[in-house]
Design brief:
This protein has 166 residues and is of the alpha+beta class. The protein has a single domain, classed as Alpha-Beta Complex (Sufe protein. Chain: A), CATH 3.90.1010. The protein contains five helices and four strands, in the order H-E-E-E-H-H-H-H-E. The protein has a four-stranded antiparallel sheet. It binds FE2/S2 (inorganic) cluster. FE2/S2 (inorganic) cluster binds next to helix 2 and helix 5.
Length: 166
């Protein structure tokens, strides 16, 4: 059985699903002003047995390697999950295959959870669109200036010490 630390190194060396998704249905971006890192996640949905499922997910990160590893694991884990199941996933679930994160790296996983929540919120037709550009033309990936958008008020959601980025 692979040791979690080896898995972390292997994932860092070969992250999966990294990059923009031009045909995404939803996108979420969060950042942490303290470490200056950020994660953006794209989701593409499809339908299976009458339920909306995540067909695929991808991410982009200007974060540390831990954030990249967790995002890689998360985007793999999300494939085939229903939206309801994805909403249940916490940062600890997303990073579980990598083993417990050290305390100073917990926020890296929180950022990935935050990006997922933002993407799912953008997908939810009941919620107010947080960004008028989301889900419309041009595609939600049209803004490549992730760093340029790193100015936003803190998220007030739960334990996340991250900020939403438009
Ligand atoms: Fe900030 Fe990892 S150190 S995301």
């Amino acid at each position: 059985m692979t040791h979690p630390e080896d898995r972390l190194q292997a994932t860092i060396a070969n992250p999966q699903n990294m990059g923009e998704m031009p045909d995404a249905d939803a996108v979420g971006t969060v950042g942490n002003p303290e470490c200056g890192d950020m994660v953006r996640m794209w989701l593409k949905f499809s339908e299976k047995d009458g339920k909306k499922i995540i067909d695929r997910a991808s991410f982009q990160s200007f974060g540390c390697q831990t954030a990249i590893a967790v995002a890689s694991m998360a985007t793999e884990m999300l494939k085939g999950k229903t939206v309801a199941e994805a909403r249940e996933l916490k940062s600890a679930d997303l990073s579980k295959p990598l083993g417990p994160l050290p305390p100073m790296k917990l926020h890296c996983g929180d950022m990935v959870e935050g990006a997922l929540r933002e993407a799912l919120a953008a997908e939810n037709p009941k919620s107010e669109p947080r960004n008028p550009n989301l889900g419309t033309e041009p595609s939600p990936v049209a803004d490549p200036t992730l760093l340029g958008s790193f100015q936003a008020p803190p998220l007030k959601a739960g334990k996340l010490k991250v900020v939403k980025l438009d």
